[in-house]
Amino acid sequence: MLNNNELDLPGNTTLPGTTYPAMPFVFVGDEAFALGEHLMRPYSSRGLSIARRVFNYRLTRARRVVECAFGILANKWRFLHSPIRLKLETAISAVKAACVLHNFVRVRDGFNFEDSLSHSLESPNPSGVRGTRHGAAVRDHFTAYFLSPHGALPWQLEAI
Questions:
Q1: Residue 42: which of 144, 134, 130 has the closest Cα?
Q2: What is the rounded CA–CA span in Å between residue 53 and residue 159?
Q3: Which of 22, 26, 80, 155 has the smallest CB count inside 10 Å?
Q4: Contact 59, 45 (CB under 8 A)
């Protein structure tokens, strides 16, 4: 699905302030996933350069935000805690409905800090998957961007 662009992802776009080639939109994953044009995974943790450590840190932060947001959503809509046993079209509609209802409830009731305190998303065991050369080139471009004046965070070197 991801490699064939069956998800109808937006077209490639240039990162702010860069002259890099247009970059694809990507999903963030952990070591269990294969690196691909649209799926980023961290570099192997052995002997990392500063640039690669920064990339891994930024990828981990992005994953943490996504996991927290999904945890909040899943705690309110319990059907997201287990595999959805519906036809694909129905499952897509159910997830979209949960997102809309979740946003409606947030606007109506306000933010409830208790919702964000507990979630449990376990990662599958790493399987040693690597990925594609094109995926590696995309990851290298993101790595360079995270150290560039336009993509760096002022405190990222202190955090790695």
A1: 130
A2: 10
A3: 155
A4: no
